[in-house]
Amino acid sequence: MTINRRSFIQTSALAGTALAMPAVSYGRVWGSNDKIRCCVIGLNGRGRSHIDGLKENVVAVCDCDEKILGERAEGKDFEKFVDYRQVMDHKEIDAVSIATPNHTHSIIGIAAAMSGKHVYCEKPVSHNVWEGRQLAESANKYDVLMQCGTQSRSSKALQDAQQYVAEGNLGPVKYAVGTCFKPRKSIGKLDKPLQIPEHIDYDLWCGPADKRELYRPRLHYDWHWDFNTGNGDMGNQGIHQMDIARWFLGHDTISPRVLSIGGRLGYEDAADTPNTQTVIHDYPGAPLIFETRGLPKSKEFQKDGWAGNMDNYRGSVIGVIVQCENGHLLISNSYSQVAVFDNDGQKIKEFKGGGNHFANFLDAVRSNDPNKLNGPILDGHLSSALCHTGGVSHQLGHKASLAEINSALENESDLFRTSFDRMVAHLQANGIDVKESKALTLGLDFKMDPATEEVIGNEAANARMARDYRRGFEVPTIAMKVAS
After folding, report:
1. Does pLDDT of 286 surpass 90?
2. pTM, rounded to two decimals
3. Using CA atoms, how far apart are residues 230 and 124, in angstroms rounded to an integer?
């Protein structure tokens, strides 16, 4: 069964009662050597990095795949849980780190906040805009610390470079372009539904998402490319670059206007998220453009050699270009190096230095000081929301000819039109006909109210700011409106 979000809020005064336990304020200040007892939830991918990053503070692990759970706990003195809800009842766990698929990030994070546990949550922190706001508000309501896993925020190079830009050393910021040019081959497609192994609790794995038969060969990881559970590469890898771009631009709300153009091109498989996309977040004065490429730079590399043969924009493959009046910055994917160039293309400065995002989280928890968090959950929510709204524009778009798209872009800035032109050239280099066919999806062009995080004048788009949650996995309402 599914429940419409609005009707659920309006008709039930018990929203989230399965999770609505009394809040416990962890006002304790730990000593520098005290162990903050952490449980890592979600162990297949990033969860391994969480175990390594949190080190001796990890006392428990949790995963609904019992095979992976056993593998990660083998030889370790970890307490094991299959169901994350059991973790919330455990009085001896102080914090959780969440590395599950996107569609369960918010519900687990909110449950942890309600039980008084601090939270480190992987990016994106949500699957849609509304639940991300509920997660962010839950940190305030239940007096816990929440860090988003955008580790670039702990990079000394990026911190110093952002301050350099904010101080006006390159003049006013004009725009930013984030790029996620990462090889993504077809995930394949099955003729019959995927058989879920018995060691996986598939109902728990689905959680708030629709429980569907799958026609992809792999359950794990490839959920990224299914809008039911993931957010495409813009919400997977690209969320890092989206967050950096928004950070350097200085925007502290979601964008007031969104438009996407793209598609899943070059192959047919079981996925439905774009592998090629350009999105404009039309912030007044300093817009943000985001470009995604999953195909190599030309057709000759499709059979072999995708890695190392991707497009680049002004030197950015997976990175960010921040253009200012008197020069630009190139922020690479290493998160430990930023190059500064003048308007003649000469490098004039360089920032170097990494950081430890997990250590920053633990330090903030020890001192019980949310101001010490380098990646506070509100920033994680806002940057995640930009990925989600770009996805909504695509989902509500329609297949269009090149002529129709060019006509729709007549009044757009040169910045967005040239971004689109680069995408067209990229697809043509890959042998994809975009001139005569309707290969591309012209997304819905919509406006948002940044103060309420709602779409203006389009109910279909506004409905996709949330989702219908399965019974038993409803994300509880923490705040009906954005806090001032």
Report:
1. yes
2. 0.94
3. 9
